[in-house]
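Troubleshooting log. The previous run stalled partway through. Resubmitting the same two chains, unchanged.
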Amino acid sequence: MGFYKLLFVEGKKLIFQRDIYIALFICTVLFWLAINSNPEPSSPFQFWKSLASVMPWIGYWFVSVLIVVGVARCLPFEREQGMEELIHTYKKGRLHLLVVKQVTLLIYCALVVFYFYLLAIAAYAMQYDTGGLFAQVRMAESPYVSVNPSWTFAQLLLYEYGYLVLAAYIFALSILFLSFIIKRSVFIIMIAGGSFAAGEIFYFFLLRYIGTMEISKYPYFINRYGFNGMLGFNYLDSLTADYISAIQVYGLFAVIIVLLFLLNLAAKRWMRHVALGD
Amino acid sequence: MLLWEIRKIIGNRWNLAFILCVVSLWGATLYLSGQAGSYQIYNRTLSFWHVLGSLSVGFFILFISTRIFISDKEDQVKEVILATRYGKGSLLLTRMLAVITCSSICIATLTIIQVFGFILFIPNETDMVSLPLHLSRALLFALIGGTLFSIFAACVCLLFNSQTATVIVCGFLFGMTYMLRSDLLQSYSLLWLLDKGFFSYLIRAKGVVMELEWPFLLSWYGCLLFLLISATIKIQARRHEL
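Second attempt completed without errors. Output:
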């Protein structure tokens, strides 16, 4: 089976999972309720300002949930369906299959992020005037991200979209690595979702108590630049912007992705050798 | 039969990690609260069920106890189990009872951890006087909430026939109360229902006694469980699993 045909088959296998649609339905309802719960008064460029802020504010939670649910079943699917033996006989080897699975995940991440932006556009278009796509960001800068103020809103949103897709893909590849060690999808969800939730609980609850203590700087750093911070656009806030530019962030993410991609392939190869006993 | 099912839940290897995790988190919380004085430890003990206790109960029910409803399918012994001697309905009832018993055991264990932590960090007799009243009230609500949520999760698991789907649906509904700010919500609105209508509000035992909307909430809990149990029985029967 050629690369594109296999990509199509893997994509079909991924998007036909019922669990993703259950999570998608719940996330859609909650995201819609969150956007409409506290509308800000209308002002010039409010539509674009809100759109640029929605993902760093709350959207990344829902993106993370869908990434966890989708990726958690990506590898254990064959095992849980009892067709693992069939995969062992695959002509081009399982490494080729893993490459395809990882490419499928990139497409999945891009689709999930696109869906939530689309939902936000629909929700905000009902509240605000949509004019000003090519106005400069300095006219109404987003409080969450710090980018070149001469960028237009179109550039900012395109950049944000790419940023979130890359961040989500890094998260997805890490969960995929986890699924080499943990065999059941529900426990992958538990550990990946739990670690993400723990990061949020740390930021919103625990930091209030230990924020002034010396020891808090280590977990704070991990939270700030770990998955939570990455998905929550912390790499683009004013504190980080002094050290690394917006374009360099893309480069950094690309390096992490390549490393994780290769790490997953190496892990799979190593596990095959362990299974064969050589 | 009931004991056998209970042993299956208690024997889950995640239980030990779960208890160790709760103990260490609770110990760290009390230690950090202790930096601000003993009164802070007392307050923290009273609010045990607000975050750590309630989340632990939710975790236990969703990841550990509900698994018995799906383990037959995963262990590929479903066909054998469906031929059970005393009827599949009896088996379902036994499992429901096992899940309820285990959630009660979990809540009792968490209460012991809560009290033991308090005694370890603040052995002050004056503070101990009002503690049993607060603790027993919170324990009562946690037990009621835990029981109802166990039944709810079990029904969802049987309906979807998947633990992953159960974790997603029940996890979201259970977790809503941590994301919403109850005091800002309008009574009887959709967000208010999401905040209070799915049992985590009871387990958290935060201002539950002051609630004025009790008649509505009780009817909601009753209707929700009645509909869910009826749907479960009907769909189980249609699948010839009863």
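Takeaways: Chain A has a mean pLDDT of 85. The interface with chain B takes residues 18-19, 22-23, 26, 30, 33, 37, 69, 72-73, 80, 184-187, 189-190, 193, 201, 205, 209-210, 213 of chain A (CB under 8 Å).
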